[in-house]
Amino acid sequence: MLVATYNCNSVRARLETILAWLGRHKPDVLALQETKVTDDLFPAEAFRGAGWRVAFRGQKAYNGVAMVTRAEPEEATFGLGDDDGESGPRLALVRLGDVHVLNTYVPQGQAVEAEAFQFKLRWLARLREFLAARFDPAADKVIWVGDVNVAPTPADVYDSKQFQNHVCHCPQVIEAFQAVVDWGFVDVFRKHIPAEKNYTFWDFRLPRGVQRNLGWRIDAVLATPPAAGTSIECFVDVEARKASKPSDHTFVAARFEL
DNA sequence: ATGGTGGACAATCCA
């Protein structure tokens, strides 16, 4: 089973890029974040016409998640389930047989002194509760992918010192993220890819940022031990970030013997 | 030196 993730920064603007990647890699699941479109305007027919199933939950201009799958999921749900739909466009969960694939777009947080940062910390705490209420990490096969907006170690950002107070790298956010991981996840990305200058995101605003590799690892692939134990590879499609009309993130994928 | 670009969507907001 091949599971992939991509923060597309508008599914409509990146539709051809996404369809080309699907055709090339034929994943079982592609998790998308920042689709930036309401459900009535989501380009579902473009995916279905190319032979894919797609489930999505979005809103106008911001956020939005989608799950593109080869087979129809037995279940597809959205949101953390503890609100009035606020978290829907940030979390998708599908079940394919006994495998659960979770897709999150964790709030970015804006600045450490902003209310949005407290919302981010609470959101991560709520995610741990969401998992604990539904799964047993020792028994259930759960694969968690997505834009987690956290670079959890100094090796996960090109200049760790410069970003000590950044919402994606400061000690408070790393602690909040680690609490979710400690619920029961193995870092499948790190199992296969060395902790040196291997990133998934390069800021649009830095001149030649990709060529200079001024990146961050803020897109994640994690899994509970019963699923992580079967992973055989993980890769970042850096070439896709260099193509015309890229997102600032790129595709990350992992293969499991599931 | 606190910039830069990209997307949505219509003046800025978010990243």
Instruction: Give the full name of the CATH homologous superfamily.
Output: Endonuclease/exonuclease/phosphatase
Q: How many domains would you count in the coordinates?
A: 1
What structural category do the secondary elements indicate?
alpha+beta
CATH C-level category: Alpha Beta
Which strand order spans the largest sheet, edge to edge or round the barrel? 3-4-2-1-14-13
* Helix share bin: 25-40%
Q: Report the portion of residues in β strands.
A: 25-35%
Task: Return residue spans where pLDDT drops below 50 for at least 5 consecutive residues.
Answer: none
Per the CATH scheme, the topology name is Deoxyribonuclease I, Chain A
Chain-wise SSE layout:
Elements: E1 2-7, H1 15-25, E2 29-33, H2 44-49, E3 53-57, E4 65-69, E5 75-78, E6 91-96, E7 99-105, H3 115-134, E8 141-147, H4 171-184, E9 186-187, H5 188-192, E10 201-202, E11 215-216, E12 219-223, H6 225-228, E13 231-236, H7 238-242, E14 252-256
Parallel strand pairs: 1-2, 7-8
Antiparallel strand pairs: 1-14, 2-4, 3-4, 5-6, 6-7, 8-12, 9-12, 10-11, 13-14
Helix pairs in contact: 3-4
The chain binds one DNA strand of 15 nucleotides through loops.
Task: Write a structural description.
- The chain is an alpha+beta fold.
- It has a single domain (2-256), classed as 4-Layer Sandwich (Deoxyribonuclease I, Chain A).
- The protein contains seven helices and 14 strands.
- It has a six-stranded mixed β-sheet. Strands 5-6-7-8-12-9 form a six-stranded mixed β-sheet.
- A hairpin with a 2-residue loop joins β6 and β7.
- α3 (115-134) packs parallel to α4.
- The chain binds one DNA strand of 15 nucleotides through loops.
